[in-house]
Amino acid sequence: DAGVIQSPRHEVTEMGQEVTLRCKPISGHDYLFWYRQTMMRGLELLIYFNNNVPIDDSGMPEDRFSAKMPNASFSTLKIQPSEPRDSAVYFCASSFGIQETQYFGPGTRLLVL
Amino acid sequence: QKEVEQNSGPLSVPEGAIASLNCTYSDRGSQSFFWYRQYSGKSPELIMSIYSNGDKEDGRFTAQLNKASQYVSLLIRDSQPSDSATYLCAVKAGFQKLVFGTGTRLLVSP
Predict the structure, then answer these.
(1) Is the separation of the CB atoms in B22 and B6 below 8 Å?
(2) Any idea of the CA torsion for A41, A45, A46, A48, to the nearest 10 degrees?
(3) Which residues of B touch A43 (CB under 8 A)?
(4) How many CB atoms lie within 10 A of CB A18?
(5) pLDDT of B67-99, one tens digit each?
(6) pLDDT in tens, A31-88
(7) What pLDDT score was predicted for residue B81?
(8) Which of A100-104, A108-112, B34-38, B63-67 has the lowest mean pLDDT?
(9) Coil/strand/helix, residue B81
(10) CA-based radius of gyration for chain A
(11) pLDDT per residue rounded down to tens, chain B (110 residues)
């Protein structure tokens, strides 16, 4: 299996622009997680899906952030408009069952100027 | 108080020594405990999980859990320079989400 796939790997954008991050989970996994990692706050869960349905989005920082999972093999995290404080590494992870090991993708390094 | 606390380090140990990484958590209902390793610029990868009090060994790694003290640790025996990384402690209560600590950076010098 190719593992969790994320794109783009790096993104540099200007404040106010829309940013879309993409994730393809491991085939057969029914849970998908979006995390954000910063030096100050560490790894924070933003939202997670079960069978394409959002279960907990309490970690989404504000309305500028939105996430969708239109099918079992694809999810997006969108930031609109982006701000410099959104600069971070965004990880997608997937698992087969909520109790099972989460496998992380390589991450998207976002820099908002 | 943070839900999961770790000393940020760096923790420096010489090659061949035992590295001891510690983590405390605030939710007494926590049932599952994990250690992830993250190399610089890479994604976290699971190295150990522990669910009951006591020790769990896997190769050079030993996870220790003390629920009464709300404390979990990771021991790395015969530390190698390749063990140099950030180690993230993660805790879950039942079916709740995984909560990560901010990690401890380990440096193993040759």
Answers:
(1) yes
(2) 180
(3) 44, 88, 100, 102-103
(4) 11
(5) 999 999 999 999 999 999 999 999 987 667 889
(6) 999 999 998 888 999 999 999 999 999 999 889 999 999 999 999 999 999 999 999 9
(7) 97
(8) A100-104
(9) helix
(10) 13
(11) 568 999 988 999 999 999 999 999 999 989 899 999 999 999 999 999 999 999 999 999 999 999 999 999 999 999 999 999 999 999 987 667 889 999 999 999 99
Q: Where do we find the tokens 């540099």?
A: A12
Using the Cβ of B97 and the Cβ atoms of chain A, whether some distance falls under 8 Å is answered with yes
DSSP string of B66-79? ETTTTEEEEEESS-
Whole-angstrom Cα distance, residue A5 to residue B20? Answer: 33
Which residues on chain A place their C-beta less than 8 Å from a C-beta of chain B?
33, 41-45, 48, 56, 59, 91, 98-99, 101-102, 104-107
Q: Provide φ and ψ at B83, rounded to 5°.
A: -80, -10
CB A41 within 8 A of CB A54: no
Report which residue type is found at B65: L
For A85, the 3-state DSSP assignment is helix
CA distance A61 to chain B (A): 16
- Helices (H) and strands (E) in chain B — how many of each? 0, 11
Of the candidates A94, A77, A107, the one whose C-alpha atom is nearest the C-alpha of residue A30 is A94
Contact flag A43-B88 (C-beta cutoff 8 Å): yes
What tokens does A109 get?
């390094």
Q: A105: which DSSP letter? A: -
